[in-house]
Amino acid sequence: MRAIKKMDISSLLELLSRQGTVYVPVREEDGLVSFSPWSPGAEIAWDAGNSLVPPKQLLFPQTETIYRYRVDGLNVSLDELALDDIAPPQVLVGIRPCDVKSLEVLDAVFLTAGYVDTFYQARRNRTLVVAQACTKTQPTCFCDSMGVSPVEALGADIVLYDLGEEMGVVVQTEKGAQALAGAERLGQEKEVPLPKAPECRLSANVDGLAERLKGHFYDPVWDELYRKCLGCGICTYLCPTCHCFDIDRENRGQNGWEYRAWDSCMYSQYTLMAGGHNPRPTKKERVRNRFLHKLQYIPERYGILGCVGCGRCLAKCPVNMDITRIITRLQEVAAGE
Amino acid sequence: MAPEKDAQNPLVPTVGRIIKIIDETPDVKTFHVTTDHGKPFTPMPGQLAMLSLPAVGEGMFSVTWQGPEHLEFAIKKVGVLTEALHEAEEGQMVGVRGPYGNGFPIEMMKGKDLLFIGGGIGLAPVRSLINYCAEHRDEFGHMWIIYGARSPADLCFKEELFKNWPQIPNSRVDITVDKGDENWTGNEGFVPAFLEQLNPPPEGKVTITCGPPIMIKFVLQSLEKMNYKPEQIVTTLEMRMKCGIGKCGRCNLGSKYVCLDGPVFTLAELNQLPGEY
Ligand SMILES: Cc1cc2nc3c(=O)[nH]c(=O)nc-3n(C[C@H](O)[C@H](O)[C@H](O)COP(=O)(O)OP(=O)(O)OC[C@H]3O[C@@H](n4cnc5c(N)ncnc54)[C@H](O)[C@@H]3O)c2cc1C
Ligand code: SF4
Ligand code: SF4
Ligand code: FES
After folding, report:
1. pLDDT above 90: residue A337
2. Residue A210 alpha carbon to ligand 2 centre in Å
């Protein structure tokens, strides 16, 4: 791999910024870490683990306009958005292996199974993913239980390794190689063994779980699991694989725009129909849907787990709903214990 | 990076126009929609479309029938969008996108006798199938239509019910209303009871049932009593929808999305899925 002195990292980012806006993890004043545009001299939170708000917001923004319209009496005109305008090229630097894995889930949802979401596709195509391997874990991490290695980021174009004084740079794709053309003058080639994967303190056994959950939709276990949930939706907003959205509109006189915005299956409005009928009327059905969606429905539909073990939902849930403990409980139930 | 050619976003509708509005009942109107380039698309019976009134809203509706140049939607007034559509006049521009959903299993129905059971606005999707079968008459067996509404005024598609459909060769139409009026000479009573009274035998049949959830529930019970098998019973589901293309996550039944994998299911298929509808 190429080893670059940490003090020269800004030259690397400078180089990457030729590809598009560079986003890096930044610690905000309130201590929260999120991805923000980089500029020379900016303080990068290399040691922060995964950001509180997942990088999905840069591929699937919290709100985005779908089209604009103008209403004039009986007439209506629509304005489509140019993909070049909504999806300027960007480079995501420092995204962690769990979040790289989450892009596979979002790709499955937005790019396969019948329809292609062109907005997501345009952003995805114009995004260079520069991951950072994890050399230590956070107390809430359990990615290795979910089939993700903390030191590998298979879907990334480039992976960075913290080597102490230096940062190791490994190119994984053609796109990554092109972006680094000219990097030869930075650092030097070195034979460095990949850092050892750090251990996750939490774990969960998902072996065969999707298949085993099949007969347990009506299991009494759900009467117990949902009880403490407040229905706040934090878990779904912070989850890197949650993709549900609402569609609504804003009017300004005769003009307006149709937009979509992140939504949450934890809200009662989500499935409420005209006339008041609601197929998921209580928190029980909604909590069950969230966990089964991650653990059974996404695997059935797309052949991939819906949870990447990033730990955000359990770190931030006000009542400590812990998906690892729920998985353990569900395995017990499935085993008939 | 090379700019790619902008593909149309599937969430952006085509602009069309309402060219005709027909009053069906006090709270149902049928809208004929076309575009400058003719029919927006050619759906199969039972397929859906998202219809929108820009600045007001968008909703999923069955394409109840179509002509060579237009699509038809029968829409019941229930909320913000549907009320605004009921206020609209001919010439109003609308957005339309689709076709969505699986539609009725035509292949499985071929050669079979068909029993259509509809209630209220639930006749809208079934109508597309009845008219299709009438147009392809020799591909299907006997057609028996049982339909009910709250009152005589609430019967949708009266011209077809009383004139066109009874003239389909090898067919029969039976109509009931919950409560008649002074001019009503037909049957009075709910659809499930009427169905049991008519007692169409299950042999060689496929039955297609669509209506308000409560009617479906009791019709299914009656069909079971009459020895219809889950594989013979076809129904359509309604869930709240936003995208129509399996992305927004809203309409799932287990790992299926009603907007893509439905809205048409056999009872045998539904029995395999979580009963969250
Ligand atoms: C597969 C399918 C086929 C349908 N076919 C027909 C039809 O042929 N004729 C007809 O009159 N109606 C049909 N509906 C119901 C129709 O979509 C709703 O009545 C309509 O969306 C209500 O919108 P609103 O703004 O008037 O109501 P509001 O209650 O004001 O709507 C509020 C929000 O809820 C959503 N919503 C409310 N009820 C429903 C519902 N039942 N289904 C989906 N979204 C809903 C609306 O899109 C809107 O976003 C169908 C629904 C589905 C899912
Ligand atoms: S964060 Fe916790 S309390 Fe809030 S909806 Fe999720 S599980 Fe429920
Ligand atoms: S369910 Fe929780 S741990 Fe799993 S990917 Fe989502 S936020 Fe991370
Ligand atoms: S309506 Fe969005 S997934 Fe079905």
Report:
1. no
2. 22
Question: Which A-chain residues 40-79 have CB contacts (< 8 A) with chain B?
Answer: 66-67, 69, 71, 74-78
Chain B residue numbers touching A69 (CB-CB < 8 A):
54-55
Residue in the block written with tokens 């149309």: B8
Give the C-alpha separation, A183 to A171, whole Å: 11
Contact yes or no for B174/B46 (Cβ under 8 A): no
- Tell me the two tokens of residue A62: 């919290």
Atom 7 of ligand 3, residue of closest alpha carbon: A239
Return the pLDDT at A243. Answer: 97
Distance from CA of A114 to the nearest CA of B (A): 8
**What is the per-residue pLDDT across B51-91, written as a single tens digit (0 to 9) for each?**
999 999 999 999 999 999 999 999 999 999 999 999 999 99
* Structure tokens given for B210: 């669509």
Q: Where are the alpha helices (DSSP H) in A38-96?
A: 83-86
Nearest CA to ligand 3 atom 8: A310
How far away, in angstroms, is A246 Cα from ligand 4 center?
10
Nearest CB neighbour to B249, from listed A80, A122, A244: A244
Ligand 2 pocket residues where CB is under 6 Å: A 229-235, 266, 317-319, 321
Q: Read off the tokens for A276.
A: 């008041």
Residue pair B176/B191 in contact by the 8 Å Cβ criterion: yes
User: What is the CA(B60)–ligand 2 centre distance, in A?
Assistant: 30
Average pLDDT over residues A285-294: 95
Low-confidence ranges of chain B (pLDDT < 70): 1-7
Considering only CB atoms, which chain B residues are within 8 Å of A121? 7
Q: Which residue has tokens 């292996």?
A: A97
The pLDDT, as a whole number, for residue B182 is 92
- Residues A292-307 have pLDDT tens digits of 999 999 999 999 999 9
Cβ–Cβ < 8 Å for B242, A247? yes
> Tokens 């905000």 correspond to what residue?
A28
Q: DSSP character for A104?
A: H
- pTM of structure: 0.92
Q: Tell me what the mean pLDDT of segment A39-67 comes to.
A: 93
pLDDT of residue B6: 56
